[in-house]
């Protein structure tokens, strides 16, 4: 029998699905509900020194939808509005009620040693299992030198990690930004400064769109906007790439996230190095109850593959990631058309013709492949509206 149990730095997770630091972890009552519904843990909405001024904008979200489904989500939300005392009481209450659930205190402070260390000391005395340093919010609040302003600078990131490690009495994860040229470089810098683990990714800096009647960028805040953080299923390829790049350079535990909306995403993250995954946008769109399908799906997959636990998937795909130069180019695949599924719309023929190769034609009501012209790029299989083309 497979199990979903796993452990990271001697912290036991009853399952590898935890809520990331965001609105679903902003209220004690909500986290209580999430734990009851089966989440393995929660990273608390980022806690700051009580005197840090934060005024939220309205509205703070914009979405990119396809077929009614939210594919991409942009937010310009800031950090937690609970006081440190409210969090301390809340963490204690949650630990008493849900002793097996993991709680990670996400923290952020101005770049002042005393401020970071005071915050850490305050939560050293809590029942939180670990710290997560938020070096990565793209809009909260780089203009004050915090958030992504820290995580895009290796020197400042390692300096703060060092300050935190001097006083932290719990494991320290550093949450990194994808908005850098080389995320693994920043990961190595904080590792050298003593980080016990990495969390990645925070949101991708974005601009969701522009109202073409008024030329107001989205989301509109009294006619103006700002660059926000992009999340949800559309950022998964970026998150996966970042986690894989970190894993290629570092053995530290990784809390992986970015677009996890089902068990498959979680398994993919684990295969490129994540120990557990965090989820935010999927829950903001569909509610905490999505945990049921995530857990069952992953458990079924582990059993189907003969794995014992999530740890068995970890890093499995890493040996298969290489540079383009090292890819074996001695084989070529060709499109195979399923004549039952194909509706002879001719889209594949047009696209192949207009995107370089002109290898497909519609002859006597059937798609023909000219193997001399086909390079096996696979574009036809991706644009076919009936999924009638497979590459073999
Ligand atoms: C509305 C919103 C608020 C967020 N607030 C925080 C935060 O306070 N601290 C933090 O570290 N990350 C914050 N995040 C980032 C998420 O924790 C997560 O890293 C990101 O959304 C990617 O995961 P997802 O695609 O599952 O949403 C926030 C994300 C959203 C959408």
Can you put this structure into words, describing what you see?
- This protein has 392 residues and is α/β, with parallel strands linked by helices.
- The protein folds into two domains: 6-320, Aldolase class I (TIM Barrel); 331-391, Alpha-Beta Plaits (2-Layer Sandwich).
- The protein is 31% helix and 20% strand.
- The protein has twelve helices and 20 strands.
- An eight-stranded parallel beta barrel has the order 3-4-7-8-9-10-15-16, surrounded by six helices.
- It starts with 5 loop residues before the first strand and ends with a strand.
- Bound molecules: flavin mononucleotide.
- Flavin mononucleotide (FMN) binds next to strand 6, strand 14 and helix 9.
